[in-house]
Specification:
This protein has 396 residues and is α/β, with parallel strands linked by helices. 45% of the residues lie in helices and 14% in strands. It is built from 15 helices and 13 strands. Strands 1, 2, 3, 6, 7 and 8 form a 6-stranded parallel beta sheet that branches. A 3-stranded antiparallel beta sheet has the order 11-13-12. Strand 12 and strand 13 form a beta hairpin. Helix 9 packs across helix 10. The longest helix has 17 residues. The radius of gyration is 25 Å and the shape is globular. It comes from Allokutzneria albata.
Length: 396
């Protein structure tokens, strides 16, 4: 292929695989069929609302964005992304700014008709902003149109009153059966972490948990991405990407993108298993500085230690549904990595340091009680990086 065609196809690969941004195109959105059905059903039912929750990096925002794009044209669907400084008032001001309204403005002079002026719904939100005033505006707007409000990163505002007031708003909307649906999206292990103020709203709040994706869903991401650029992928490449991703679509998109690009560079229309190894190197080079620094702080030493091997063992250890693992799980993987039968006391201090506030800390969260401690990674995107690093350094 000539240079222009190559540049065009590389651009197409970048559109087909999206590691840095949420998916918005239904054709490129793989898996999550049950969750998608639930959300579209909620949006169609008066008095129903939804909460999408799960750990970081599992595709919550992509699900919300695709749902937004699947709604009928007759539905107005403002999408607001929270930040740490947001208040109840700023969230709803941001929501209503996205809802256009036509108002009539009278003009001076005999026989002159009023003119239509396009404004935003935020013009209706004046004075002190409360759950009742927000519901009043929504009820007014819903006289002419159905509304689905999507509020993303709901876990971020530091003002704890935000959660209480949003819960109050949903309660009032549900009680009054107004044709406005609120969909909250946030990082949490349980619903109570995000909305615990009203047990009574749970009958109106459909809980959409986002677990990590299955290997088959991850494979489908790769297949769809490759098909979108009129290429093929060997099953061994697809399987390797799914396994390395550990249920996180970010890494599937990242490795899929790099592997497909490597095939293009070689002038092939088939992505081979060998492209996966090259993709690992590319992914390591593209890792964020914060991930690199955390890994370096946790494992650096001027003498021979087990920190690098223990951290790798943690990354590949068998985990429960909440992503946690125990010291016995680490012991087995450490034996496989080092070829030596280390007992738990030999690496207990390593686990303690990884979960402390010290120089090597902030990597793991320690949960449970003494002698029965379990651990989980604070950043779910870190374990695949650790495994890729270990793979490149031939530790696994």
């Amino acid at each position: 292929m000539d240079e222009d065609e190559y540049v065009e196809r590389v651009g197409a690969v970048g559109r087909a695989f999206s590691p840095a941004a949420p998916i918005t195109d239904r054709d490129l959105f793989a898996g999550r069929k049950a969750q998608l059905r639930t959300l579209t059903s909620v949006a169609a039912q008066r008095g129903q609302h939804a909460l999408i929750y799960g750990e970081r990096g599992v595709g919550k925002t992509s699900l919300a964005r695709v749902t937004q794009n699947l709604l009928p044209d007759s539905v107005v669907a403002p999408y607001y992304v929270c930040n740490s400084e947001d208040s109840f008032k700023s969230i709803w001001a941001g929501v209503f700014e996205q809802i256009p309204i036509l108002t009539q403005e009278s003009r001076m002079g005999f026989g002159r008709s009023a003119r239509h002026v396009l404004q935003s719904g935020s013009e209706l939100l004046s004075g002190r902003v409360t759950p009742h005033s927000v519901v009043r505006v929504l009820a007014l707007l819903c006289e002419s149109v159905s509304i689905v409000v999507l509020i993303d990163e709901f876990d971020r505002p530091k003002d704890q009153r935000v959660r209480t007031l949003i819960a109050d708003t949903i309660k009032i909307l549900a009680d009054r059966s107004i044709a406005a649906t609120v969909v909250l999206v946030g990082v949490a292990d349980t619903v109570d972490e995000l909305v615990s103020e009203h047990a009574s709203i749970q009958r109106s709040l459909v809980q959409v948990q986002m677990p990590r994706m299955t290997d088959e869903e991850l494979r489908e991401i790769v297949r769809r991405g490759v098909r979108a650029v009129s290429m093929e992928a060997q099953p061994k490449f697809v399987d390797a990407v799914a396994e390395m991703s550990q249920g996180l679509p970010h890494y599937t998109h990242l490795l899929g993108q790099y592997g497909t690009t490597r095939a293009l560079e070689a002038g092939r229309s088939v992505v081979k298993r060998a492209d996966f190894e090259d993709a690992l190197t590319d992914a390591l080079d593209a890792a964020s500085q914060s991930v690199r620094e955390r890994y370096h702080r946790a494992t650096q030493s001027n003498r021979e230690t087990l920190y690098k091997e223990v951290l790798l063992a943690c990354a590949v250890a068998e985990k429960d549904d909440l992503g946690s693992f125990g010291a016995p799980d680490v012991r087995e993987k450490l034996r496989q990595i080092t070829g030596k039968a280390y007992d738990i006391p030999a690496f207990a201090v390593h686990l303690k340091n990884f979960s402390s506030e010290g120089a090597r800390g902030g990597i793991l969260q320690r949960i449970g009680t003494s002698r029965r401690f379990r651990y989980r990674f604070r950043d779910p995107l870190l374990p695949p990086y650790i495994v890729i690093k270990g793979r490149i350094e031939k530790l696994v």
